[in-house]
């Protein structure tokens, strides 16, 4: 079981939209040195443009090759791309991925039984453990009873809860899930409290730009250190706000350019009109990731 800070890695892109593989290699080395718990490839919430299937497969293979066993790599697959999900799962196995993160569709028209059957089919087709993540665009959380049923599917090893609702966290913990079934937060701002209550880590967007600090916050929470984790996280609050005001990855990519972690390129990432460059710079300085 992976515990702690899992980086939901954004995908730097070249001018033609293809993944910038050299930038990915550099980012993988950085996250190894920052001791992130794992890196998720192909699943960053709100990507402005999603690479096509072949690009995603090459991106995954390059990331795993660069990690070289130094940290676990999780491959994202999408349930609404059933045939491609099977191919990607096999490619992830062959490349040496540690696990699969299964993204559920944003709008699920099928019944819970049909949804569980689809997940079961994929779980049976791969040797890799599955972590299930509902789409962030869902209007309602996956029913707790369905989460409980997930634990009965061989190969399903975890669930990502994107809500910041503390009642929802308590509802999931009250299910009495198996000890080897992981619960992850999908919301940076509430992850620390969720981990203190019993979650195992977080699929983090903020860890793209402040990996060591996010790692330390989650590690302290896993150790039950409420005061220490709260003190550490105080530096992250402005960054949470600055990165999450927009429902896509542009602020994260802009921050990485500012930090010198990715190239500006011929088409530098632009913040939407509602975002504030100076506000994001101040947030980066508050987290002590920008001089």
Please give a quick description of this structure.
With 291 residues, this protein is α/β, with parallel strands linked by helices. The chain has helices at 21-33, 53-67, 82-95, 112-125, 144-150, 166-173, 188-197, 211-222, 226-233, 237-244, 250-258, 277-286, and strands at 4-8, 38-41, 73-78, 99-103, 130-133, 156-161, 182-185, 201-204. It has a single domain (4-223), classed as Alpha-Beta Barrel (TIM Barrel).
Describe the overall structure:
GO terms for molecular function: 4-hydroxy-tetrahydrodipicolinate synthase activity. This is 4-hydroxy-tetrahydrodipicolinate synthase. InterPro entries: Aldolase_TIM, DapA-like. Belongs to the DapA family. The structure is a single chain. This protein has 291 residues and is of the alpha/beta class. The protein has one domain: Aldolase class I (TIM Barrel, Alpha-Beta Barrel), CATH 3.20.20. The protein is 44% helix and 13% strand. The protein contains twelve helices and eight strands. It has helices at residues 21-33, 53-67, 82-95, 112-125, 144-150, 166-173, 188-197, 211-222, 226-233, 237-244, 250-258, 277-286, and strands spanning 4-8, 38-41, 73-78, 99-103, 130-133, 156-161, 182-185, 201-204. The protein has an eight-stranded parallel β-barrel, surrounded by five helices. The longest helix is centred in the N-terminal third of the chain and has 15 residues, at 53-67. The chain starts with a strand and ends in a 5-residue tail after the last helix. 44% of the residues are buried. The model has no long low-confidence stretch (mean pLDDT 87).
């Amino acid at each position: 079981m992976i515990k702690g800070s899992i980086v939901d890695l954004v995908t730097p892109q070249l001018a033609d939209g293809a993944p910038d593989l050299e930038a990915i290699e550099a980012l993988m080395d950085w996250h190894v040195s920052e001791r992130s718990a794992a890196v998720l490839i192909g699943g960053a919430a709100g990507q402005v443009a999603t690479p096509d299937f072949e690009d995603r497969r090459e991106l995954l293979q390059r990331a795993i090759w660069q990690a070289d066993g130094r940290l676990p790599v999780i491959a994202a697959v999408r349930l609404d791309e059933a045939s491609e999900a099977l191919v990607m799962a096999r490619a992830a196995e062959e490349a040496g991925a540690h696990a699969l993160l299964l993204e559920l569709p944003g709008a699920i028209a099928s019944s819970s039984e049909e949804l569980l059957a689809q997940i079961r089919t994929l779980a049976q087709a791969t040797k890799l453990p599955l972590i299930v993540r509902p789409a962030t665009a869902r209007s309602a959380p996956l029913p707790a009873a369905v989460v409980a049923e997930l634990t009965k599917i061989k190969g399903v090893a975890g669930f990502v809860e994107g809500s910041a609702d503390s009642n929802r966290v308590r509802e999931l913990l009250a299910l009495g899930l198996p000890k080897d079934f992981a619960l992850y937060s999908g919301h940076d701002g509430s992850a620390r409290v969720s981990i203190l209550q019993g979650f195992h880590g977080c699929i983090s967007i903020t860890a793209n730009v402040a990996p060591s600090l996010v790692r330390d916050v989650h590690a302290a929470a896993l150790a039950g250190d409420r005061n220490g984790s709260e003190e550490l996280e105080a530096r992250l609050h402005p960054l949470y706000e600055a990165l999450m005001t927009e429902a896509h990855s542009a602020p994260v990519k802009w921050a990485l350019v500012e930090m010198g972690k990715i190239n500006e390129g011929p088409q530098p990432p632009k913040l939407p009109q509602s975002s504030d460059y100076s506000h994001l710079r101040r947030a980066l300085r508050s987290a002590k990731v920008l001089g």
